[in-house]
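FORM 12-B: Structure-to-Sequence Request
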């Protein structure tokens, strides 16, 4: 008939992760798959609410009433609540850390499992009124061998995570994830309610042409950052880089993974440790960046080597194409030599 035959070999996230289990060998008990299924469910729920929010003005400050006159929850509070309940109900978690909760949740009783999930349920939610893409960011640790699940299980370097990912809520709903064997991207087919593999084996280009940083902070930058930016804005040879800054980490990192270049949120004279959170923003994005062949550093050390002291601590972030990030590090190393 000449019509394009429907693609019958669609690979769903669940099937892809199940296949992945063969990599994990004996470690694969299905628990991680079930945990990732719970994360998929929360992503679909949040995606629906983010979309509705744009339609019926669900956004705004907590305590206001929405068009139905109901006491409405801020989207990020709602997103947090659904993630906590779904992750606990999965029976696979022992420790939960959320950007929205002051303290870690230790799961007790019959629902206690072997994994710790650290997450920002809706990062960048202040952008939602403007229709900017926002997202959920998550990282997963296995509890330590002699532990039943306690705070020390999440105060570990990001290099000990077994999986990490983000969900971006925009014109489509994209889930990008790694379980330690490369990075894959999935797109939600709302008619099927399934995440379909659309970006297999994402590899970040070794060098890009885009830099992403909030130049509104330029007055506070330390010298290595100023010198690096000048080197790509006024290059001795070649063309200047393009500037792209969305101000929503998931959107800026997603573009960096796909197009290459560098995303920066450095420490400066105003923000002594930078702005981004180590456990559930920097670690998962650094994990994905490295799994895609890129580099993620504070300027002075590999982000995934940091040992967190607290669950909400912040850290400086430079991540993206290997050569671009290594260019920044050279300016920090030059500064260290001057000292
Ligand atoms: P600034 C959003 O509020 C966020 O946490 C990240 O998603 C984003 O990268 C950063 O803050 C933007 O911060 O200071 O540039 O507005």
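FORM 12-B RESPONSE
SEQUENCE OUT:
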């Amino acid at each position: 008939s000449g019509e394009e035959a429907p693609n019958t070999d669609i690979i769903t996230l669940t099937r892809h992760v199940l296949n992945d289990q063969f990599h994990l060998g004996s470690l694969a008990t299905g628990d991680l798959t079930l945990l990732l299924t719970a994360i998929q469910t929360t992503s679909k729920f949040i995606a629906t609410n983010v979309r509705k929010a744009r339609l019926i003005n669900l956004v705004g400050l907590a305590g206001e009433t929405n068009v139905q006159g109901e006491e409405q929850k801020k989207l990020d509070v709602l997103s947090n609540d659904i993630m906590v309940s779904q992750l606990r109900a999965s029976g696979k978690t022992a420790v939960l850390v959320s950007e929205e909760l002051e303290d870690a949740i230790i799961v007790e009783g019959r629902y206690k499992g072997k994994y710790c999930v650290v997450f920002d349920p809706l990062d960048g939610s202040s952008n939602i009124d403007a229709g900017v893409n926002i997202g959920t960011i998550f990282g997963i640790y296995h509890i330590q061998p002699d532990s039943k699940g306690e705070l020390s299980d999440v105060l570990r370097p990001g290099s000990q995570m077994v999986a990490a990912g983000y969900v971006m809520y925009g014109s489509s709903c994209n889930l990008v994830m790694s379980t330690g064997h490369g990075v894959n991207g999935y797109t939600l087919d709302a008619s099927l309610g399934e995440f379909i593999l659309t970006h297999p084996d994402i590899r970040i280009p070794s060098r890009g042409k885009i830099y992403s940083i909030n130049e509104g902070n330029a007055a506070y930058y330390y010298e290595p950052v100023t010198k690096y930016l000048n080197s790509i804005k006024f290059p001795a040879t070649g063309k200047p880089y393009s500037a792209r800054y969305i101000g929503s980490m998931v959107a800026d990192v997603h573009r960096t993974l796909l197009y290459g270049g560098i995303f920066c949120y450095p420490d400066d004279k105003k923000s002594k440790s930078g702005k981004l959170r180590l456990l559930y923003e920097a670690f998962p994005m650094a994990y994905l960046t490295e799994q895609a062949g890129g580099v993620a550093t504070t300027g002075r050390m590999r982000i995934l080597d940091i040992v967190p002291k607290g669950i909400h601590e912040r850290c400086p972030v430079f991540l993206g194409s290997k050569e671009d990030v290594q260019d920044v590090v050279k300016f920090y190393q030059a500064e260290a030599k001057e000292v």
